[in-house]
Amino acid sequence: MRKSLIALAVVALLLAVALAQRHRILVYAVALQGVPALSEPEDEGPGVRWHDDYFTVQALDERTFAIGEPRYAQQNYSYLVVGAERAVLFDAGPGVRDIRPVARSLTDRPITFIPSHFHYDHVGNEISFDRVAVIDLPYLRARAPDGRLRLAFEEHLGVAEGIEAPTLEVDEWLAPGSQIDLGDRTLQVLYTPGHTEDSISLLDREASYLFTGDFIYLGPLYAFMPNSGMGDYLQGAGTVLSSSAPETRVFGAHRVVPPGAPELAIDDVADLDAALRAIRAGELAGAGLYPVIYPVNARLELYAEPSWLQDWTPRHPDLAPDTDSRAVGSALSSPPAGTAGHY
Ligand SMILES: [Zn+2]
Fold first, then answer.
1. What are the φ/ψ torsions at residue 110 (nearest 5 degrees)?
2. For residues 253-273, average pLDDT
3. Contact call for residues 342 and 336 (beta carbons, < 8 A)
């Protein structure tokens, strides 16, 4: 009797440890598969040119470019947005090749690198950029009093492909909701967590582009990463929907098949928002055990943890565009001029 009790306790303990360490187990399981080989180049359709034998360039207009890595297993897309005075490179891929010469070939303006989030397939890793800007979240700032932000295991996940977490030399902290001035062009920083706690999107209101990183792209959306959050995802979707015009073109950071950059629509974000609400209400069934795969629409699926592990409490609800407190605030005083909604 006592022996079987001890055995039961050991099994329970092991299960508890496995549960607590599930994200690490997952990452190391991926690492066991080894680094994926580059695929053969495929036809990328009209409007896409090969920069060399690895990168592709697709002009969305004469000052906005999708830089693709279609031969890399995760088929990454980074975006170069050029203004009169400076340019922004939104994501830099996994650093299998150096993206800087590609960006340099498209503009002579100073380039600021902004990661959509800190996963290894977006931060360029060993590439060091002249100028780096990241989302201004209190817990990140606290870790980098000297501007040197060492990425944590859970934020970076480079172990999956044997890549060490880099330290970012941060020149600029981007407040959620703030505008990045490129000269004659501005990008608004939208805090769009969900895939990770540190995820942002960039909105070019005038050109009607939204660059979303891994918040939404053409492929399975991952909401089961170590710092993913279902409540965060819902907050991010709400922020996009309340900030973007319906006709906005949406560009994500991955795709599954050619040709060209992964382009979606605001309707896809609305479908994601609806799916998240349905999951929270227990009205949308998923398939599989871990991750659970929920349908979003004809072309999108959301991979999440099972419902009993889903966390619907947003981590930084104060960073959502102001709705409740605006109602309260406006009754007391009008907001100062120039603050187009605070985040
Ligand atoms: Zn990614």
1. -60, 140
2. 97
3. no
